[in-house]
Amino acid sequence: MEESDLQQRTDEELVALTLEDQKYFALLVDRYQAPLTRYILKVSNSTKEEAEDILQESFIKIYYNLNGFDQDLKFSSWAYRIVHNQVISTYRKNKSRPQGHSWSIDDDLMRVLASDLDTKRDVDIIYLKQNINQVFDQMDVKYREVLVLKFLEQKDYKEISDILQKPMGTIATLINRAKKQFKKEADKLNLELY
Amino acid sequence: MSEQRLSDSVLQIIEQKEIKPKSKWSFLLKNWVIWIVGILAVLIGALAISIVIAVLRSNDWDIYREFGQSLPRFFLSTMPYLWLIILGLFILIANYQIQHTKHGYRYPILVIALILIGVSAVLGTLFYGVGVGHALNHRLNEESPLYRQFVDKKADRWAHPEAGFLFGEVQDIVDNSEFAVRDFDGKKWNVTDNTVSENPRIKIEEGIRLRLIGEKTGDAEFEAKRILPWDIREKGKQRLQQHIRDKINIERRIPPLRTR
Question: B31-83 pLDDT, tens per residue?
Fold first, then answer.
């Protein structure tokens, strides 16, 4: 099959191809490497190398469990779920608390986040970008991960529900509480967001 | 790892360690086990409910004052708490199982728990209706003095002939005022019927189960001053039998219609 033709294939088609021949799994890895690496860095205290290790383990688990992939889910939700569980289990083994690490965020996403958090209309996006890591670092991981998934990974409620395996109502509650905690932590750090 | 593409290193590990995707059957089997355990938990919960209903319905509501207690105190002291705990435990197990099905996480835990309690309640009522609750409870009473002492307080109350309360299943009928019964422990008692008139008077027949209030007069002798059916099913059985007897008697008294 032509490379360009394979790039056009959906995730589900690539899963089916992988089950026939493992070489096609490389396409799924390439497709999801960047977004999943960003996700790991945003929710955990990993260095880039540690994130790659976690991601490698996750992809091996994804491959091993491919026959268990629920076609009712998006493949991306399922992949994020496995990565999420791997991050939690890695930090349980190391008995440390996943904390955010420094990462960059593009301006458009920052505007979305600022808008949804009801920050001052004219708050400096650059200022917010510089300080957001500090705020995220202080937040509980369960709140940080929903904010990351909602605003930075731009997942909808159903996808977040499938990733974290919680009801949609619970996700909505977590997001509301996460926003409140974000504002509270920003306040503690004397960040002028409002 | 940064020199090599991640996809290449992943495929390399898969090949070196000969990792193969887990078979579809193992996922199906896991799913079936989750559902089977969940369904079993609901069924056990339903059995618990059927026993709770049986215990409450056949309780001594008609003569609780004989035990020197007020109604609320009597109610609280005779609740089958163990079965309620078992019900709670198996609802938790069933809930856990449902949460771990493919899509179970999408539903709030409380909603699932309420549905499971509802299903157990409906099934439990059906089980009670066909006699499972009574049969199981009675069997446990016969097999275990500890069960009588700590769970089915009614059975324990009627296992104290020295205090004037005796359970008995009628074995032999000697005459109109004497019969033999077997208690929960299998001990045979000779019972003298010295009852003041009870309305409706219970008909002593082999096999029926009775509550006997009176006095222990010997090692295996009991003088009964009141004889009551063991539970409402015995009452119901007797009423039905009496109704059938009355109907037969009425038909015998009415002469047949003459036809041309």
Answer: 999 999 999 999 999 999 999 999 998 889 888 888 888 999 999 988 899 99
Radius of gyration of chain B (CA): 29
- Predicted structure pTM score: 0.77
- What one-character DSSP code corresponds to residue A23? G
Q: In a mutagenesis test of the A interface, which of B1, B8, B9, B10 is the best target, namely the one with the most A β-carbons within 10 Å?
A: B10
Count of residues making up chain A: 194
Cβ of residue A194 closer than 8 Å to a chain B Cβ: no
Instruction: Identify the three-state secondary structure at position B184.
Output: coil
C-alpha span between A173 and B108 (Å, rounded):
12
Q: In this complex, do A25 and B103 lie within 8 Å of one another by their Cβ atoms?
A: no
DSSP string computed for B53-80: HHHHHTSSGGGGGGGT--HHHHHHHH--
User: Using a CB-CB distance cutoff of 8 angstroms, which residues of chain B are in contact with residue A49?
Assistant: 1-2
Supply φ then ψ for residue B165, to 5 degrees: -125, 120
What is the distance between the alpha carbons of residues B106 and B168, in angstroms, rounded to a whole number?
Answer: 54
- Whose structure tokens read 């089997």? B29
> Quick one: which H or E segment has residue B141?
helix B132-143
What are A27's two structure tokens?
């396409």
Q: Which residues, other chains included, contact B68 with Cβ-Cβ below 8 Å and sequence gap of 6+?
A: none
Q: At a CB cut-off of 8 Å and minimum separation 6, what does B72 contact? A: none
Under 8 Å CB-to-CB from B185, ≥6 apart: which residues? Answer: B145, B159
Q: What is the pLDDT of residues A47-106, one digit of tens each?
A: 888 899 999 999 999 999 999 999 899 999 999 999 999 998 887 776 555 555 555 555
Q: How far is CA A108 from CA A40, A104, A152, B148, in A?
A: 21, 12, 10, 72
- B55: closest CA among B155, B125, B145, B130? B155
Cα separation, B164 vs A192, in Å, equals 82
Q: What are phi and psi of A141, to 5 degrees?
A: -60, -35
Least Cα separation, residue B106 to chain A (angstroms): 4
Q: Report the C-alpha gap between A64 and A90 in whole angstroms.
A: 18
Helices (H), chain A: 3-7, 11-20, 25-43, 48-64, 75-93, 107-116, 125-138, 141-147, 157-164, 168-188
Residue A38 in this model has a pLDDT that exceeds 50:
yes
